[in-house]
Design goal:
It is built from 8 helices and no strands. It is an all-alpha fold. The two termini are 33 Å apart. Keywords: Sigma factor, Transcription, Transcription regulation.
Length: 163
């Protein structure tokens, strides 16, 4: 597998979902993703010095901005604006309701499975470390965490920051 194929297979979904957050129409999203990977293909020689992820996501931002300019729409990637929007939209009652729903759903799993999930997703402990501490295989830890994730996604209408 050549370098471009490896980069494409590793980042295609990440790029797609990143662009999809900012572009609503499916055709536009696909066009932009294609443009991003064309750019990566053209500049493969520079990826030896810079991590591919930084090039890819910088290109994502540029291509999304270019799309907005072409269509004469206003858009920025300012973190301050994103924070302001999040603060304005934040509804504490809804948040508490969602947290309690997650807690209820988590209680449907055995304590050990819940602990693995919380340690991995909340405390950012790696699968390897959890496997060693709990005398399990990495695959077993991964399956347990992913089982809860799938269950939560199926049962929640809103994705939470925690997930």
């Amino acid at each position: 597998m050549n370098l471009f194929e490896k980069i494409y297979s590793e980042y295609k979904y990440k790029v797609y979902f990143f662009v999809k957050k900012y572009i609503q129409k499916e055709e536009d999203t696909e066009d932009i993703v294609q443009d991003i990977f064309i750019h990566v293909w053209r500049h493969m020689d520079k990826t030896d010095q810079t991590p591919p992820e930084s090039i890819i996501f910088k290109t994502c931002k540029q291509e999304v901005s270019k799309f907005y300019r072409r269509n004469k729409l206003l858009f920025t990637f300012s973190e301050e604006e994103i924070l302001i929007e999040e603060e304005e939209v934040f509804d504490e009652d809804l948040y508490k309701e969602q947290i309690s729903k997650v807690e209820r759903l988590l209680n449907e799993f055995p304590q050990k499975t819940r602990d693995l999930f919380i340690q991995h997703k909340i405390e950012n402990i790696s699968y390897s470390q959890l496997a060693k501490e709990n005398n399990l295989s990495k695959t077993a830890v991964s399956k347990q965490v992913n089982k809860i994730l799938s269950f939560l996604k199926d049962n929640l209408h809103l994705l939470l920051i925690i997930i």
